[in-house]
Amino acid sequence: MNAQALSAGFFKNFIARPGGAQPFSRESIEKMPRTAGARVFRSVCPYCGVGCGQLIHVREGKIVHIEGDPESPINRGTLCPKGAATYQYVVNPARLTRCLYRRPYSDHWEEVSLDWAMDQIARRIKETRDATFVDRLPDGRVVNHCLAIASLGGATLEVEENYLIKKLLNGGLGILSIENQARI
Fold first, then answer.
1. How far is residue 135's CA from residue 124's CA, in Å, rounded to a whole number?
2. Domain residue limits, the chain
3. Which of 47, 125, 149, 155 is the most buried (most CB within 10 A)?
4. Is the predicted pLDDT of residue 183 greater than 70, yes or no?
5. Class of the domain covering 39-91
6. Which residue would you say has higher pLDDT here, 175 or 12?
7. How confident is the model at residue 6 (pLDDT cuts 50, 70, 90)?
8. Closest C-alpha to 99, from 107, 108, 110
9. DSSP E strands, 47-168
10. What are residue 45's phi and psi, to 5 degrees?
């Protein structure tokens, strides 16, 4: 191989940069970030009530990356450990995506349809509320409440979801014991 061919082959892996040429392999030149070609949507971190901004990168209907929003006045692009793990929460292969039910006295879970599970939940809430609802106290005061049902929300509920839960359970069903374990 002559010197000219050797130098042409050698220098094709260098890219001109300020301060001089930098060596790059063909693979590193062809690689693209996983966010390339993705649409970016602004969102709010689902973990607590702080409201940190997130950027959700979506390509072909699938989330490919989640990061802090640098334009958010709340977090300025930073995320706590829980917020930084949101992507894994969404795409984790171990995440349950179907309804499982364990019958009374059973030693195993069985897969059931979402319609069946929703019907069971609605039926049990209605039966419990109907059996325990209090219109008035013995002294005649109107209370319209149900003390036999409680709700404990999780840290992954969004502000809007918590608002709807409060309206439905307290205003609609008369449930008083509504709590949320989100940590701020």
1. 20
2. 39-91, 99-180
3. 47
4. no
5. mainly beta
6. 175
7. very low
8. 110
9. 53-59, 62-68, 99-101, 110-112, 133-136, 142-153
10. -55, 135
